[in-house]
TrEMBL record:
This is MOSC domain-containing protein. The lineage of its organism: Bacteria, Pseudomonadati, Pseudomonadota, Alphaproteobacteria, Hyphomicrobiales. It comes from Rhodoplanes tepidamans. Transmembrane segments: none annotated. SUPFAM superfamilies: PK beta-barrel domain-like. It comes from the Bacteria. PANTHER family: METAL-SULFUR CLUSTER BIOSYNTHESIS PROTEINS YUAD-RELATED (PTHR36930), MOSC DOMAIN-CONTAINING PROTEIN (PTHR36930:SF1). Residues 23-172 form the MOSC domain.
Length: 191
């Protein structure tokens, strides 16, 4: 019996014009090169997180598009936390792609036009426990090797285009040696 081959796919897309924790589902989103998701509060050439703006001022936006794998949401459901796509603030939910295992600089072609580049891991914050008590402990683990973050990845838009549920995802790894994804600091190295 042949192995079942699965291909990475976009499950859902989300945006919010307000700086809200969760984002509403859309039938499609438009990615804009160098900015992010059109109509989303986190789009722009500079970091749009209110806390980061107050603390660091105007710095490049390395968090233009937030992605999470729906397998993480499945795991949470198995542990008693029902979290639907978009509720953790992601713009794009995926399936059949281990986002957290990809290296920094990986490019993802989303549908026929859009291309994003992974910049790092999302750093979960206290708002997660405000959303659902106890959820943060399921998304952040402290190990002997350090902190393990499981709340998705951040990226920048390299080439714009429409992205919608059902779109295929094509992965292009950066040249060797690969650098594992780490927390995206608010201030880029050397700034």
């Amino acid at each position: 019996m042949p192995d079942v081959i699965t291909r990475p796919v976009v499950v859902s897309v989300h945006r919010s014009a307000a700086h809200a924790f969760s984002k509403a589902a859309s039938h499609a989103v438009q990615l804009i090169a160098g900015l992010g998701v059109e109509g989303d509060a986190h789009a722009g050439p500079h970091d749009q997180h209110v806390y980061h703006i107050r603390k660091f001022g105007k710095v490049p936006n390395l968090r233009q598009v937030h992605l999470i794998q729906t397998e993480t949401l499945d795991e949470l459901r198995g542990r008693g936390h029902v979290v639907r796509p978009g509720e953790l603030g992601e713009n794009i939910a995926t399936r059949d792609l281990d986002l957290l295992a990809l290296p920094t600089g990986t490019r993802l072609a989303l549908g026929p036009e859009a291309v994003i580049e992974l910049t790092g891991l999302r750093n979960p914050c206290v708002q997660i426990d405000r959303f659902q008590p106890g959820l943060m402990s399921q998304l952040v683990a402290r190990t002997a090797a350090g902190v393990v973050r499981k709340c998705g990845v951040m990226s920048i838009v390299v080439r714009g285009g429409e992205v919608k549920p059902g779109d295929p995802i094509t992965v292009t790894l950066p040249p060797l040696p690969h650098t594992p994804l780490t927390y995206v600091p608010p201030v880029p190295a050397g700034a």
